[in-house]
Amino acid sequence: MLNILFNCRCAVKVVVSSMSAMTTLILWNYAVCAGEIAQPEKIAQSISPPTNEQEPPIEITVTGKVLNQPVFSPFRREGTVKDSTRPVYVITGEEMEAQGARTVREALRFLPGILPDGTVGTEVNALSGQFIRGSNSEQVLILLDGRPINNLGGGGFDLSEITTNNIERVEVLPGGGSTLYGSDAVGGVINIITRRPTEKVTTQAGVTLGAYGLNEQTIQNSGKIGDISWVVGYNRTEADNNYPFSIPEANFEGTRKNNDTLYNNFNVKLEANLGKRNTLTVSSLYLNKNQGVPGGVPIPEPQFGQGYFNSLTDNNRKYTDQVLTDLTWNSKLGGGNDSLITARVYADFLNTRFENRSGTLSSQRRFDNEQTSYGIQTQHSWKFAKNQTLVYGFDYRNTSARNSTFNYSTEQQTLSYDDSLDQGALFARYEINFTPSFSVNLGLRQDFSSLADGSFTSPSVGARWTISDSTNLRANYIRNFRAPTLFNLYARGSTFVGNPNLKSENGDSYDIGIDQKLWDFGLLRLTFFSNTISDLIAYNFAVPVATYENIGLVRTTGIEAALNVQLAKNVYAFANDTLNDPRIKESVNSAEKDKELRFAGADSLNLGISYETPQGLYAGILMHSLGSYPTNNTNTESLSGYTTFDFKTRIPLSDNLVLTGSVDNILNQRYQLFPGFPDAGRVFQVGLNATF
After folding, report:
1. In angstroms, rounded to a whole number, what is the distance separating the alpha carbons of residues 686 and 267?
2. Three-state SS for 98?
3. How far is CA 52 from CA 176, 398, 450, in A?
4. Across-strand partners of 474?
5. DSSP alpha helix (H) spans, 518-654
6. How far apart are CA 482 and CA 183, in angstroms?
7. Biological process (GO) annotations (predicted)?
C-alpha cells in the first residue's frame, strides 16, 4: 500500500477513492445519526457557548470553521476565507499545539497547496523549502504580520527559524501575490500572524522532551492594564539529532553527527490605545540559532550526479541572529468602522555566519552575510459604499547586504558583494458586490526599483459567484514577478560572478475553483490552476567563470483538493491532495525541454481522522504522503517519495494544565529528501503546558 502511494497516478486514484468512500460513510452515518449529533467545539477555534438549550448545527465546526476563518493575505485587510476569490489555507496556533509543530516549517506539513518538506532533513532545525505551484523557496514571499521579511541578499526565508509559541495562525495563499505585496510572490504568499495581547493577564509556560535530545521550554505573558496591552515571550529549544541512518545507494550505515541545534528566541509586542479610534503597536522578534551542519553522504553513482559531491562534516557550524521589528499605527476615520488608515515602519537585521572548519586548514573558510532592511507601509482600507471596498497605499523598502569570505589558512577576507537595493510601489485593490451573490475585485500595482530593469506592473482580477447556499464558484488571474537578489546581481568569487543585467522573473497565474458544502457535515474545495514563470534565473556552470542568466520558462498545471468532514459526534476527518505538473518549456539545455522541474513536481496527499471534544481533548492519526520526484531537470535522477503516519494527542489534565504528545513516522519509514540526506525515522515528544 505504501509503495502504491508513492506513485503519483495511484495517489490520484487513492484520494478520489478515499473521498468517495468517506462520503459514502458520511452519508450512511448522517442518515442514521443526523438527528442525534450534538455540537462539539473543535480545539482549533474559540466559540462562545450557546445561550439557549438548543445545540448549534454541525456547520459551525466544519463548514463554518473553514469558511469563517479570519485571513489577511488575500485582501491586505481583515476578511474571511469565504469572502476571498483566492484559495487560502490556514492553520491556527491551537492546531499547531495539537499537532506538536515546533516551527512554522513543521506547521505547514498537512496543508494543501504547498510542498513544505524541504530538501535537507526532518529535524526541528532543518532548512525549510517551500514549493508552491512550480515555484521554489526564493519565489515564495514570506510575510510577518503582513509585511515582507524575505532575504533580498541571498533570497527566501528559512521558516525553521520561527518557533510556533508566538504564532496565532499561518496563512498559505497559492498563486502569487505581487499585486498586493510586490516582488518574490511568484508562486504564492505565506503570512505568519503573531499573537495579540489577551484581555486578562495570563502566563503560559511549557516544557517538551523528545527523541534524540529534544528539550524545549517556552513561556509567554500577555495581558492588558488600562490602555496598555502586551505579549512577551521566550523559547529555548535544544536537540542533539544524533539518530542512526543508512544510505543504501552508498552502502553506508552510521549515526548522524554534528547535527545539534540550540534556539533562543524572544518576542515582545506592546499595544497602546490612543483614544477609542487609534492604536500604536511596537513589535519585535529576536531569532537566534546555533546549529551543526552535518552535510550528506556522497552518492557514487551516477558520476557527477546530485549527491556525488556530498561530504559529511564534523565541525561545520551555522550561526543566525535576526531582529525583526516594526512600529504600526492604526486609525479609524469617521464615526464608523468602514475606514481604516494603517502606517507602519519596520527595520530588520539579519546576520548569518557559516563556519566551514572540516578538512585541512587550507580548505577552511568562514562565510558572513549581513543584511539590513528599512521599510514603510501606508494604506487606507475604505468601505465607501455598502457594496464597494477600496484598499490602496504605498510601500517602500531599502535593503543593504554584505557578503564576505574569510580564509583561515591565509587569514585574508574577500568581499563578495556590498550593495543595496531600493524598492517602492503604489497599489490599489477595488472590490464590488454587484449582487449579494456575485462579487468582482480588480487590483493594480506599479513597482519601482533601483535596478535598471526593476520596474514592474502587476494587475489582477478575481470573481466569486454564490450559486446557492451550498455552492460557490471562484476564478482569478494575477501577474507576478521576482526581482533578482543582490547575490544574483553582484556576487564576486574566484569561480563565479553575478550578472547585473539580469531581468526580473515574471509569471501569470490562473485558477478556477469551487467550494461545495456537503449538506451540513462537510466542505469540499477544489481548485484547478495554471502557473507560468518566465525569464527564470538559473546558475550557468560556465568554465572558467560561472554566472546567473535568464534562461527558461516553466508552466505548472495542477489541482488542489481539500475535504473537511464530521463523521460523528466529536469525530472529524480531512483529506487534501495537491497535484503538480511543472514542465520546462524553454531552456538553454535542450535536454530539459518538456521535462519535469526538479523537486517542485511531487504530488502531496494528506489524510487525517481525529477525536475532539469541547473540553480540548484531541487524538488524531495523520498521514502525509509525498510522491516521487526528479532531483535534476533532465529527469535522469529521482527519489521515490514516502508515506508516514503520525499520532498526535492533546489531553487537558485540568482547566490550567495540558499534556501533549506525538509519535511521528510510526512505521519508521526511512527516506531521503535529497540524495544522501536522511530523515530522522520514528521520533516522539511529550509536553506539559500550564496556564495561570
Report:
1. 24
2. helix
3. 45, 56, 62
4. 464, 513
5. none
6. 5
7. siderophore transmembrane transport
Distance CA 322, CA 351 (A): 6
Helices (H), 483-618: 486-490
- In sequence order, the 6+-apart residues with CB closer than 8 A to the CB of 384 are 338, 339, 390
Chain center to CA of 316: 27
Q: For residue 220, give the nearest of 93, 382, 116 by alpha carbon.
A: 93
Phi–psi pair at 248, nearest 5 degrees:
-60, -35
642, amino acid identity: Y
Alpha-carbon distance values, 198 to 154, 269, 279, 282 (Å): 37, 11, 15, 16
User: What are the cell numbers at 690?
Assistant: 500550564
Asked if residue 465 has pLDDT above 90, the reply is yes
pLDDT at 261 over 50: yes
Single-letter code of the amino acid located at 256: R
End-to-end, the C-alpha distance of the chain in Å comes to 47
Cα radius of gyration rounded to whole Å, the chain = 25
The 3-class SS string of 346-388 reads EEEEEEEEEEECCCCHHHCEEEEEEEEEEEEEEEEEEEEECCE
Calpha distance 629→598 (Å, rounded): 7
**Using one digit for the tens of pLDDT, what is the confidence trace for 285-298?**
999 999 999 999 99
| Other CB atoms within 10 A of residue 58 CB | 22
Q: Is 62 in contact with 566 (CB distance < 8 Å)?
A: yes
22, containing H or E segment: helix 8-33
Span 200-243, pLDDT tens digits: 999 999 999 999 999 999 999 999 999 999 999 999 999 999 99
Q: Is the pLDDT of residue 30 over 70?
A: no
Domains plus CATH for the chain?
A: 2-691 (2.40.170.20)
Q: What is the pLDDT of residues 87-116, one digit of tens each?
A: 999 999 999 999 999 999 999 999 999 988
Q: What is the pLDDT of residue 166?
A: 95
Instruction: Classify burial at 148, counting beta carbons within 10 Å of its beta carbon; exposed 0-12, middle 13-18, buried 19 or more.
Output: buried
Q: Which residue has the cell 513516522?
A: 665
Sign of CA dihedral 73, 352, 487, 122: negative
Q: Is residue 134 within 8 Å of residue 583, measured between CB atoms?
A: no
CB atoms within 10 A of CB 603: 27
Burial class (CB in 10 A: 0-12, 13-18, 19+), 398: middle
DSSP assignment of 165-233:
GGEEEEEEEES--HHHH-TT-SSEEEEEEEPPPPSS-EEEEEEEEEGGGEEEEEEEEEEEETTEEEEEE
What torsion do the CA atoms of 238, 244, 245, 246 make, to the nearest 10 degrees?
150
pLDDT above 70: percentage of residues in the chain = 91
Query: Which residue, chain included where needed, has cell 462579487?
Result: 439
Pull the grid cell for residue 460.
489582477
Q: Please say whether the beta carbons of 160 and 129 come within 8 A.
A: no
> Alpha-carbon distance 266 to 213, whole Å?
22
Q: What is the 3-state secondary structure (H, E, C) of 443-461?
A: EEEEEEECCCCCCEEEEEE
Q: List the grid coordinates of 422.
A: 531600493
| Cα 537 to Cα 436: distance, rounded to the nearest angstrom | 44
From CA 553, how far away is CA 629, in angstroms rounded?
Answer: 19
